[in-house]
Amino acid sequence: MSSTYTPVEDTKTGKKLAGPVGWLDERLGLAALGKKNLRKVFPEHWSFMLGEIALWSFVVLLITGVFLTLWFDPSMAETVYTGSYRPLNGVEMSVAYASALDISFDVRGGLLLRQMHHWAAHLFIAAMMVHMLRVFFTGAYRKPREINWLIGLGLLTLGILAGFSGYSLPDDLLSGTGLRIADGMIKSIPLVGTHVSFFLFGGEFPGDQIIPRLYMAHILLIPALLLGLIAAHMLLLVYHKHTQFPGAGRTNENVVGYPMLPVYAAKAGGFFFIVFGVIAFLSATFTVNGIWIYGPYNPAEVTAGSQPDWYMGFAEGALRIFPPLEFDIFGSTWPLSVLIPGLGALGILFTLLGAWPFVERWITGDDREHHLLDRPRNAPTRTALGVAGMTAFGLLWIGGGNDVIALRFGLDLNSITYFLRVMFFLGPIIAFIVTRRICISLQRKDHEVLTHGFETGVIDRSPDGGYSERHAPLSVDKQYALTSAKPAPAALEAPELVDANGVDAPNGRKAKLRARLRRWYYAGAFDKPTVEEMQHAEEHLRDADQHPVDLGEDFQGVSETGVPRVH
């Protein structure tokens, strides 16, 4: 049996499409563009899927958001509810809250789509946060990707704003409490806070304009900005080429992986349906934001034990644990106990995140392009700073639920607050010290394995009766991966404090500070094994291949209990 190959352009379908495709190619240059980009190679690693989860969650948000837009009415006009949810029949509420109830109980499939929208928002923000942590800990933000880091930070900011504006739209008692907190933060701005609040809310809180304005921002302004930044993020990703973890055959000049078509496109398409299915399962199984439980918003009421969505918990915690602090200047009150932990905490956090790539580059003096990722253990100071930041974030997160924790565990609310005030400063320091020591210990372990091999679990007996355990060398691929994953630090330059005439040099103090920070940044870091050390290791492990047992390619030694680490 034989078969002949027919070029696509000679097939019946190809001949029909030749005219339109040729017409477009002559005017848009699609052939050259497609040939270059559709065969672009992307590396494969599980952590790279975090960005895809965020992307596909955003697609689910767009799909479900279009459906909800057709039914939701953002009016704050008063009405009397007469829908299917009997406990609220006859209750006065806003049209926005009534329409949210109608979507939940009277529109077929409305509750499922509404919950899918909410779960997708949670997953979207969570995936972006974890993705940015991966980028931070592996150093993927370094030159030439600083702008993409800032774009990612902008996406995270807009995602949080989209989430906050979205769960405020139903005008229920819980979301109204969140808007009340936001109003308090705005009014804490000295001199102009009250004017800004009146402008946004259309008068004294809650006014009659905030829901329609949040609605327009939620369905038009923020999604448009998100789409633009996502497009810019993806274009820069293609332009700079994807980062990859060190390994055999991987260098700073190439990318080892699979092409966009057909492999990566098929995998990404399948992954979209996985993300969609997980969100649909969560939405059909677990209730999220049950607005019918809270009732309509009333400025005179507050939901007991009210908690914001998880991504706003750190801001709530900062407000709760900050000590009372305010003063008056010329008849104007400056409520620093709201301004500093509210707007100040958000501003400081995002300013530090945005400035870090440039601060690190100034400290290290490293102006090289980086397309290979770092193992977190090989950048102990950076990793320790990241864990310290996560610790501070987690403590503020706990502070956002201090009342619920006190109630559920029978603890004193004030004691929890005082404890968090102390640990907010002490906890990150402890986390930094412990994390850096762990990273340095892991580096020492890698150095030992490279130079002395790994334990095989086989005991040799010498002629004089002594016992020793036989070691085996790592494979060449693993040795390459470990050594290339440990880039040499930038050379330290001694600062010039005085010139040839003994006069203080310009920026001498700045140079001295930079030198101190550089020594602190690289403190305790292990260098790569020297050529002499590797030659000694080769001599030491020369007879390792004379092993009585076939170790196999995947064998990586035994643990302290004698069990193979990979088996």
Written account of the structure:
The protein is mainly alpha-helical. The chain has a domain at 45-293 and 301-374: Cytochrome Bc1 Complex, Chain C. The chain has helices at residues 12-28, 30-37, 49-71, 95-105, 110-138, 146-168, 173-187, 193-201, 210-240, 260-285, 291-294, 313-321, 336-364, 380-399, 402-409, 413-452, 476-484, 508-521, 531-540, and strands at residues 41-42, 78-80, 92-94, 258-259, 327-329, 332-334, 454-461, 467-472. The relative contact order is 0.09. The mean pLDDT is 85. It is found in: Cell membrane. Its cofactor is heme. One of its GO terms (molecular function) is oxidoreductase activity.
Relevant terms:
Cytochrome Bc1 Complex, Chain C; globular; two-stranded antiparallel ribbon; 19 helices; 567 residues; mainly alpha
Summary?
Its cofactor is heme. Helix 4 packs across helix 5, helix 5 crosses helix 10 and helix 7 runs antiparallel to helix 8.
Supply the CATH class of one domain: Mainly Alpha
Number of helices: 19
How many beta strands in the DSSP annotation?
8
The N- and C-terminal alpha carbons lie at a distance of 45 Å
| Mean pLDDT over the residues | 85
Structural class: mainly alpha
What is the 3D shape? Answer: globular
Secondary-structure arrangement, i.e. CATH architecture of one domain? Up-down Bundle
Fraction of helical residues: 55-70%
Strand order of the largest sheet: 1-4
Secondary-structure element order, as H and E? HHEHEEHHHHHHEHHHEEHHHHEEHHH
Biggest sheet descriptor? 2 strands, antiparallel
CATH superfamily of one domain: Cytochrome Bc1 Complex, Chain C
Query: What is the CATH third-level topology name of one domain?
Result: Cytochrome Bc1 Complex, Chain C
Give the low-confidence spans. none
Question: What proportion of the residues form beta strands (DSSP E)?
Answer: 5-15%
Radius of gyration: 30 Å
Keywords: Cell membrane, Electron transport, Heme, Iron, Membrane, Metal-binding, Respiratory chain, Translocase, Transmembrane, Transmembrane helix, Transport
Catalytic activity: a quinol + 2 Fe(III)-[cytochrome c](out) = a quinone + 2 Fe(II)-[cytochrome c](out) + 2 H(+)(out)
InterPro entries: Cyt_b/b6_C (IPR005798), Cyt_b/b6_N (IPR005797), Cytb/b6-like_sf (IPR027387), Di-haem_cyt_TM (IPR016174)
Membrane topology: Multi-pass membrane protein
